[in-house]
């Protein structure tokens, strides 16, 4: 592919990232997973004594595995696409993607001499019985192998920064104004903790799948084998496929022709929340970098600006913020759209599902940029401390709280009168303490107040890291 001519940046500018997820979400990946589901269904029928299907021999099973491998790794998927779009060999154009998969498996079985198995391919199934499980396998693989590890990598880095800077006192800002001090490490810990919770929530979500026929009533299966418990068959087959998924995949036995996709919304919600947390973090780091509280390592050979040679722009965090916004726009649309289907089935979900890779791809581009950005930064500890020392007024909260605790009348009002909107210096605050009426405030209390500095007024912040 000429990446300069790609329509999507995932296939162009960001191809090095997008290619990782193409393994899971490309058209070839979708075809492969459809074939996997259909072959597993044939194997399931052949292994169940309730059905008059002979056992698949070891040689035949090996050939089926070779067929799947050929579709996954080589150009054999092109044959299936040709059957769908223009015809191939004796097969006319189907204009139906799942039927093309079925015909290809039938062809392969015939080629290996297993013609008696041909009519059991896709037996009692509808296209959605294949597609919904295929998408579950694709989502599960992408989450398990790419998305969760990438998120976990960010979380681990944030936790490391939290420990590294647990005791570095820092001016906080609420409403953009100087406020009660914190530590840089504790602020990293906030993001690490938030992200960890969403990773846990994400991993708890089960993807529901269906395997119950055209309108969800097991009608074709039941009429052929009325003595079989088809709900049990559905659960057993979905469990069999779920073992391959490395994720929680379960059967939904009461559906229309399609699985209602509610669990897609459940799955994408914690992913969106994780992305939103990272957007929040990117914006905060952008500000810290802007204030020079955090500095970035200059990469040799890089250009920060086309006109200003000195610049080291926070491009990785800006990239992360932008691409996470695109990802969340898609994920949010999926959550609104996919649980809705007209009557027993319409096809509007099909084209939407094909964009799962785009949503995951933009998020993954962001994750990798954020990880790169985190690998470039270090705290400017001297400047962080200096910025805090320049705002001694933040300890007026401590003063008024101590004075309240000893019964001093209206300490908040007294401190507000001298500090609100004023440029304070630490000697001004000390003078306030020393001038307090000794009949109301004893020397021990004054000594406790005078010992407070902006740098040690950090409460339990260091202990909140961990």
Structural write-up:
With 466 residues, the chain is mainly α. The two termini are 47 Å apart. It contains 18 helices and six strands. Strand 1 and strand 2 form a beta hairpin. The strands form three sheets. It has a two-stranded antiparallel ribbon with strand order 1-2. It has a two-stranded parallel sheet with strand order 3-4. The chain has a two-stranded antiparallel ribbon with strand order 5-6.
**Remind me, CATH topology of the largest domain?**
Fumarase C, Chain A, domain 2
The total of helices stands at: 18
Model regions low in confidence, pLDDT < 50 over at least 5 residues = none
Helical content stands at 55-70%
Global outline: elongated
Average pLDDT level: 94
Enumerate the strands of the largest sheet in spatial order, edge to edge or round the barrel.
1-2
* Sheet with most strands: 2 strands, antiparallel
Q: What is the number of domains?
A: 3
- CATH fourth-tier homologous superfamily of the largest domain: Fumarase/aspartase (Central domain)
SSE series: HHHHHHEEHEHHEHEHHHEHHHHH
DSSP summary, beta strand count: 6
Q: What is the first-to-last residue Cα distance? A: 47 Å
Cα-atom radius of gyration: 31 Å
What is the level-2 CATH architecture name of the largest domain? Up-down Bundle
Share in β-strands: 5-15%
Based on secondary structure, the structural category is: mainly alpha
CATH first level of the largest domain: Mainly Alpha
